[in-house]
Amino acid sequence: MNVIPFDDSRLTAMGLLSEVHSGIAAKTSALFATAGLSVIDFETLIRLARSPRQRLRMSDLAAQTSLSTSGVTRVVDRLEREGLVARQACTTDRRTSYAVITEAGTDRLGGVLPQHLADVETWFTGLLSPEQLDAFLDTLRILRDAVRPCATAGAEGAPTAELAGTDCPGPRDVEGR
Is 54 left (phi over 0), alpha (psi -120 to 50) or beta? Predict the structure, then answer.
């Protein structure tokens, strides 16, 4: 008889990670909806807002969000129609364009950020001591860098998606949010 290791700590780790992610997402997604943003809209805007010059190459934005290039194009198209993002041509490479957060996008983020940060504090970071949080962030970066090597593409000091190589995992489409 083959014994199946249902009590394996690896299964416990994955289960806990999944439960924490879905729990925090459930606690925070209503806030985004009241501001007329989906979770991927918020992720796109916050990544642009936190990037150098508040912009990212479209390919780097796709790599950071793990959206396909067509998926990120659809998200940026929608955000552009709402005036939250603009496209900017690259002056040195006609094949490249940037997604840039607009003042309206910054304002929309500013409307949800205080409550979002309070929610994050209540349901996540505030539950840990400063030492636990530092260790947890270090651990998350190790895991992120292993499973999503392109997650920081285009950030200060990080390679662009093209320079990061082909080790990036397959993209999820915008419907996979």
Answer: left
Q: Where are the domains of the chain?
A: 26-163
Q: What is the pLDDT of residues 91-104, one digit of tens each?
A: 888 888 999 999 99
- The structure tokens listed for 92 are 């040195």
- Cα-to-chain-centroid distance, residue 109: 14
Q: Could you give the 3-state DSSP secondary structure of residue 27?
A: helix
Give the model confidence (pLDDT) of 96-125 as tens digits: 899 999 999 999 999 999 999 999 999 999
Per DSSP, what are the bridge partners of residue 57? 98
Q: What is the pTM of this model?
A: 0.81
Could you tell me which residues are beta bridge partners of residue 101?
85
Which CATH architecture describes the domain 26-163?
A: Orthogonal Bundle (1.10)
